[in-house]
Amino acid sequence: MIQLPRGSWWDWDVVAWNPGQLRLGAGHDLTYAHGLELVFSDPVLVRCPSAFQDPVFREPTPSELQLVERQLGEMPAVLIAFEADAGGTTLASGLVAAGRLDIVQGTVFRYWREELAAGERLASWVRPPAT
Asked: CA 70, 86, 99: angle at the middle one, nearest 5?
């Protein structure tokens, strides 16, 4: 089961997703920054809304375990399941299987800033203004 650090991790979205990494960002308001990232290395199965709120992480159900084992042939090192509000009439289920999970805490700004304090960084898509 996943253990998040203390904080206000209500808002979530997919920050980056490529063949080698799935990165979920979380905070109390994602308009300008997020303060927590779940970084899944080598994701092999991902069922996740692009944006969601207030996830409840849980153990995978027997049917989810069976699905993962059937599709992958073995159990991955990391398997995370959750239910969250993704804006629909019912909760959305999430399931992520990966080789590794890192929980990274620190302010990640979603807009251009020139001066960053220790532990702060810019989101990967933020670019300096044109000169």
From this structure: 40
